[in-house]
Amino acid sequence: MRKVRITTSKGQSHMTETIAILFIFFVLVFFGILFYYKYSQVSLKQEKEELLGKRAIETTLKALFLPELICSNGEAEPEDNCVDMLKVRHANVTFRLHNQTYFDLLSYSKISIYKVYPESEIKEPFVLYDKPKPDWEKKEATYFVLTLRDELQGQDNYGFGYIKVEVYS
């Protein structure tokens, strides 16, 4: 019987080392790609939230300065941060008649006015505009304090309230 001797040459050991180094390299590349993918997802989610917040503020500002709601009495300058409740009560009709125009301006949102003082028997808010997105994921609400002017029997009565604007993403 002959004894067979198995020898490993230097070339084989270098080849094994090279394969091990390539394996480690590709594992590191894989983890780098995985880390970048997770970072991109978090970054994209954060950017979407910032854009939604920005859109909510823009929509609130548009709603605050709608001539259909703002207090005016024929003077050149309207009253700051004031909503005319007489106009608010009839604004729903205007918003429904010109639905596309207001959709272009306010997009998918809900605008409500809440009366805080003086308290009235009606606790429900005045919903001016309500167009929810069919498949919305998140909504962002912004609030702004207002003076509410209500003209009763030829006399202006002022109250306190706030506007709530909810924007859908």
Notable characteristics:
169 residues; single chain; 27% strand; alpha+beta; 5-stranded mixed sheet
Number of strands: 5
Task: Please state the structural category.
Answer: alpha+beta
Quaternary class: single chain
* Secondary-structure element order, N to C: HEHHEEEE
With strands numbered from the N-terminus, the spatial order across the biggest sheet is 1-4-5-2-3
Mean pLDDT: 86
Instruction: Indicate the low-confidence ranges by residue numbers.
Output: none
Helix content: 40-55%
Q: How many alpha or pi helices? A: 3
The description of the largest β-sheet is: 5 strands, mixed
Q: What is the overall shape?
A: rod-shaped
- Give the C-alpha Rg: 32 Å
- Tell me the distance between the termini: 82 Å
Protein model, in words:
This protein is of the alpha+beta class and 169 residues long. The chain is 45% helix and 27% strand. The chain has three helices and five strands. The chain has a five-stranded mixed beta sheet with strand order 1-4-5-2-3. Strand 4 and strand 5 form a beta hairpin. The model has no long low-confidence stretch (mean pLDDT 86).
Short précis:
The chain is of the alpha+beta class and 169 residues long. It is 45% helix and 27% strand. A 5-stranded mixed β-sheet has the order 1-4-5-2-3.
Task: Summarize the SSE layout with pairings.
Layout: H1 10-64, E1 82-84, H2 85-97, H3 99-106, E2 109-117, E3 126-130, E4 139-152, E5 155-168
Parallel strand pairs: 1-4
Antiparallel strand pairs: 2-3, 2-5, 4-5
